[in-house]
Design goal:
single chain; about 325 residues; alpha/beta; 8 strands; about 50% helix; elongated; disordered C terminus
Length: about 325
């Protein structure tokens, strides 16, 4: 029984007993800790970590770039309509000419997709309005219009995606059917590399009222991206593209990293079938379609570069 002598309080002082208790507790803690570590090692071996998704965008990859659609992808609503709202405020056309474009803007917000006829009407009207005006004048006005109507409509989520590419050292381009001047202003304000957009003809710095080629829409966007990639020495398989519209499937299909952002029904279906990444920054299906819920009424009246209205075109 001599070995158990330390258990007998009468043979030890209070101090000695405290020391023994402390040592015993420390030893038990060490043993418990070692056993827990052993169990954790066994658990880790039994269920290895799942492979993590590769980092994207890849930092320092100068052969990669990102291409962002504008309307309903980077910005809520259509840039051309917001631009028209600003032109109306500056009396580029009369109030009575707003009716058609109020409807077009409301339809765009509610449906969340582009109607080719509406957009063509908007472009034709815009061209008739800017005809005879100097490019420099419209650029200056465009800066003001961005601050008044567009800045607050930028989707923070999409802006963050663009910034991630910039932070990785990659170039970021807007690709839109909106006038290239408007798109360039937006790109500059967001700190992006530049913009591909519809080019309106000008002679000696004055708009002629005609387009150079056709609107940058659908397949034309893909061709613009292809041409820019060739000029910049980019590898499209390492590039990314972002859009909300099924009209941009040709552009999205061109790159190795396509993203559907706030997608319309057709693009959502297409993206799911091909396992493309999806991001939706809208708050609920219905509100998402509206963009800014309360704007389908009064705000819509300010409608578009379309703001030109067919009446103006027909009269002149």
């Amino acid at each position: 029984m001599a070995a158990l002598g330390w258990l007998t309080p009468r043979r030890r002082s209070a101090t000695a007993r405290s020391v023994l208790a402390g040592e015993a507790s420390a030893e038990a803690a060490r043993k418990s800790s070692q056993e827990m570590e052993a169990l954790e090692d066994l658990a880790a071996a039994a269920s290895p970590e799942e492979p993590q998704e590769p980092e994207f965008p890849v930092v320092g990859d100068d052969k990669a770039a990102a291409f962002f659609d504008l309307d309903n992808t980077v910005m809520q609503g259509a840039a051309i309509f917001h631009f028209g709202r600003g032109l109306y405020k500056r009396k580029f056309f009369e109030r009575q000419e707003l009716a058609r474009f109020a409807w077009q803007q409301a339809w765009f917000r509610l449906a969340g997709v582009e109607d080719p006829e509406h957009m063509q009407d908007a472009r034709d009207s815009a061209l008739s309005i800017v005809k005879g005006h100097r490019v420099a004048e419209l650029m200056s006005i465009g800066e003001e219009i961005y601050d008044e109507y567009m800045a607050e409509r930028i989707w923070p989520g999409t802006r963050a995606l663009a910034q991630a590419h910039l932070d990785a050292g990659q170039k970021v381009w807007l690709v839109t059917a909106a006038p290239v001047e408007t798109a360039t202003i937006i790109a500059q304000r967001l700190g992006l590399t530049g913009a591909l957009g519809t080019v309106a003809e000008s002679v000696d710095g004055v708009y002629t009222g005609k387009l150079v080629g056709e609107p940058l829409h659908g397949p034309a966007k893909a061709e613009a991206v292809r041409a820019l990639a060739a000029a910049e020495g980019l590898d499209l398989a390492r590039c990314a593209a972002y859009s909300d519209s099924h009209n941009d499937i040709p552009m999205l299909s061109l790159v190795g990293h396509p993203y559907a952002i706030n997608p319309d029904a057709k693009l959502r279906k297409h993206a799911r079938e091909r396992d493309w990444r999806l991001r939706d920054y809208r708050t609920g299906r219905k509100a998402a379609k509206v963009g800014i819920p309360a704007a389908a009424g009064v705000g819509a009246i300010a409608g578009g570069t379309a703001a030109a209205i067919a009446l103006h075109r027909r009269r002149h």
